[in-house]
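pasting for ref. prot 1 ->
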Amino acid sequence: MKTDKILSKVKSRIRLTADEGLALFKQADLLTFGELANGVRKRLHPERLVTFIVDRNINYTNVCVNKCAFCAFYREADSPDAYILAKEEIFNKIEETIAQGGTQILMQGGVHPDLGIEYFEDLFSSIKSRYTIQIHSLSPAEITFLSEKTDISIMDTLKRLKASGLDSIPGGGAEILVDRVRKKVSPNKIRWRQWAQVMKEAHSLDMTTTATMMFGSVETDKEIIEHLVRLRDIQDETGGFTAFIPWTYQPGNTKLGGRSATAVEYLKVLALSRIMLDNFDNVQASWVTQGAKIAQVALEFGANDFGSTMIEENVVAAAGITFRMTRQEIVNLVRDAGYIPAQRDTTYKILNRESLKMQ
């Protein structure tokens, strides 16, 4: 397949097929990807505005029945360092987040065999009765487990969680939305259609969600494309995804092992995502796995969002990657890259727009 024709389609705002996306991925060089993806981002976001959110990841437990081969965070229930956070610990973390200007908590944990829907209904309602904060929590795998444990439908599970205070759902657990890959890296976790079902039904309840992709483990280039096309199809149907976040597999301390994707590989996939996901407004840079400098470069490869300050993060850190960043550091990095920093909320409403120049 000729690359020139594909490049022309991208520049003419014509959607690429899966075969065209794969051909582009295999044939185009890094700078071509950057030029194309940057052009798409500029059309969608003509202002040089780069958003970020102040929030905290709260991992309420590290016990998980899924035992994914790529995960260094989970523990067996009888492990000496297994835990479930007490309510007061969670409240203290939320208060610290709000004190730092945080507007969202991202609560995810392992799939704990003993925690049913009543635990989360009580927790979420307790949080909402005390604090004004967005609860952006529970991956599709956790929600599916709660549905099965309670013996109710996904829809009823979502309705109950929403009624108790769940506002939106993170895209965690997507990995690669191809079952061949999922059977290798997370054989005990839900399959791709179950992940998609949770997202579609959440969207039908006017709950926004994000979408993610963890790449660099055992997937092929074709399976990366398949993942993106499946997300694009869901977005065509529901329009409920607010953003896409690709990030690289981190092999440290995992059963799966292997190597980390290079910065070049990350930037190519990021750019490909911006090009293929023509119905996603926002694409997020992953400084948590790539570090500050590559995250800055990502702004020229299609990303328009710098993600979260992540006042706390434990899952990636368990694999030995411990980048940390304050709100001011994000503001400075965005400015240094030539963009205007803007704090947003979960729905991408701008809360505080900084100036381009240092005060």
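and prot 2 ->
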Amino acid sequence: MRSEEVISDEEGRHTLRMRESIAREIAAAGGWISFERYMDLALYEPALGYYSAGARKLGAGGDFTTAPEISSLFGACVAKQCAEVLRAVREGSILEVGAGTGRLAVDLLTRLESLAQLPSRYFILEVSADLKERQRRLLHAALPHLGDRIVWLDGLPEPFDGVILANEVLDALPVTRFRWDGTAFEELGVTFQDGALSSAARPADPTMTARCKMLMAHALSEEASLGTAVLDGYVSEYCPRLQSWAAGMARSLRTGAVLWFDYGLPRAQYYLPERRDGTLLCHFRHRVHDDPFRYPGLSDITAWVDFTALAEAAAAADCQLAGFTTQAFFLAGMHIDAEMQAFAGGDANRFARLANQARQLMLPGEMGERFKAMAWLRGLDLELSGFALQDLRHSL
């Protein structure tokens, strides 16, 4: 183990309790659980899961950094997109799902106040008690005069008018993992043997087999045309709950927009033959690794988003798919350059720092292309500026 990965005694006890809890569930299930169930436990088990326990997750002292933590430019641009919707909705509010440290909420409300377009309410739906407390402290310190507008919820408000916003939420939904052995699909689950968690395969049932064939139709047809087993051992994943979860989020929306920001791909690009190890990623202390069984309860586990599935969910939610683009083109459409000028206020050094932050948000090798933005609309006929420069809906 590398020295920088040495964990404290307290962290060691925590991950041991998490591992023991998962082992008990595996034993009760007959020795095997699905990876989806494992990921659910590792992330959300009360008091033990990564998002349910008290470990610091975001920012310099955490495990990963999101766009709002990199720069307030991101929140300022998203705020201007929200303002377009709020102008068209009578007494509209904002609902942020999974608000992280609260940084995005601060940046959104600050910029919306400067635009004289504050929402009637700023709702936050957060599953992590630790993050909820951090959000309260940050928002109270930064925007004490707006405290009466900010409301934490345990469930969705109904009916809701305004903007529903989710930044890097979908990638944390538990996924099912599968493998193609050259002749059939297998489901990859989790066992506990000799004191260790490990992956174990079993034949996929007919429903899962049909799902995998649909997802990989292009790759399988390409393999068949070549007459070779190029996909033998191919591993990937899909999120069984993405469509129903996303549609459920929008169910309370009466008039307004849903804005999704996350890393991912359209389905045709997601399941390419060369992406044979899938997209599962784990984060621990700002390092990326591919072992979901390392430090359960301490490591984040994520998978890229199938944006075709998210687009399909729009129809299930009775919403219009109003836009799909890269994060770079979204920010350009919201005139991030003008935000940089306004933030710098003539200070050349500050402008240089902001320019560096903008590069992190926009360059292809950073977040610019890996991260995508998608918009749904209901009850509105509105052109959204963030999606005006590039339209990738045809790729879905």
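DSSP finds 14 helices and 16 strands in the chain.
The first strand starts at residue 33 and ends at 34.
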